[in-house]
Amino acid sequence: MKHQKLKNFTLLELLVVIAIIGILMTILFPSLQEARVRAQATVCKSNLKQMHIGEMLYAKDNNRKIWAGHWGAEFMTRTFYQPDGINRVNFHDGNTGFLEPYTGDGNSAVYNCPATDYDKSSVFYNADKGRSYEGFMDINASKPEFIKDFYVRTGPGPNDLAFEDASRKPLFWDFTNTIGGTDWAKSIGSSSIHGNKGRINLAVTDGTVVPVKLPTVYWKPWIQPEWIIALERALGESAN
Questions:
Q1: Angle, alpha carbons 65-165-61 (nearest 5°)
Q2: In this structure, is residue 172 part of a structural domain?
Q3: What is the pLDDT of residues 176-221, one digit of tens each?
C-alpha cells in the first residue's frame, strides 16, 4: 500500500493564510468591541438596579425616605449628610456608608460601571477609588427625603430646583463630574463612558433604568440646561 506524501505549505500559501486571518480580524473586531460595550452597559444597568434596591431597603429602615446627595462618586459610601451645610448627621451611626449595609462596602463592584474607563491621571481616581455613579440632590444641604419631595438641584438659589412635581425623577446615573472645582477635564466626565458616545444610564425613582443621550460637549461641572433637557427626554417628564 502506497503512502501519500503530504505536501508542505509554501511560504506564499502561509502568507495568504495569515493575510486572510488578518482581514477577518479587521472585519470582526468592531463587532466584538461593540458587543463588549453592550455587555458592560448591561452590567452597569444591573448595578444601578441593585443600588436602587439598596435605596428602597434604606427607606424601609428610615421612615420611607431616600437620599442621593450630589457628592460625586462618594455619595454611595458617604457616612454623613449635612442638612444645614455645616453640622453632620450620621448614616448608620457613622460606622458605615449610606448604601454599604445593603450593597456592600466601598470596594464593591456594584459601585463601578465597567463601561467607564476612569482617567487614572485624575485626582478623582484615587479619591473615588474607581466608583462611577452620582446622585442629583444638594452637595451639603441635602437630607433624606420622601420620593414625593425629591428634587434635582440646578443652581445655588432656593428656587433652583427641578423635577419636584414629576412622577418619575432622576435618582443617580453612571457619570461623575467635578465637585468643588472648575477643572472638569480631570473629572470622570472626561473619561470614556460607554465608548464616549454620549450614552449614560439613569436610575429613576420608580426603579427603572433608562438611557440618557448627552453629548460629551456638555460633560461639565454642575447641572447644565442641556442636562435638564436630556433628562426630560429620557424620563418623558417635565422638569418644571
A1: 10
A2: yes
A3: 776 555 555 556 666 778 877 888 999 999 999 999 999 888 887 6
| C-alpha to C-alpha distance for 124 and 25, rounded to whole angstroms | 36
Structural domain that includes position 192 = 11-235
Residue type at 97? G
* Domain-embedded: residue 129: yes
> Which DSSP symbol is given to 119?
-
Measured over all CA atoms, what is the biggest interatomic distance in the chain, rounded to whole angstroms?
A: 97
Q: What does the pLDDT look like over 118-147, one tens digit per residue? A: 777 766 666 677 788 889 888 777 899 999
Residue type, 6: L
Which residues are registered as beta bridge partners of 152?
Answer: 162
Q: Which residues contact 106 (CB under 8 A, 6 or more apart)?
A: 76, 77, 97, 100, 129, 131
Give a yes or no: residue 34 inside a domain: yes
Rounded to the nearest 10°, the torsion over CA 165, 171, 174, 176 is 80
Q: Evaluate whether residue 240 is within a structural domain.
A: no
Q: How many structural domains is the chain composed of? A: 1
Q: The whole model's pTM is what?
A: 0.81
pLDDT for residue 18? 82
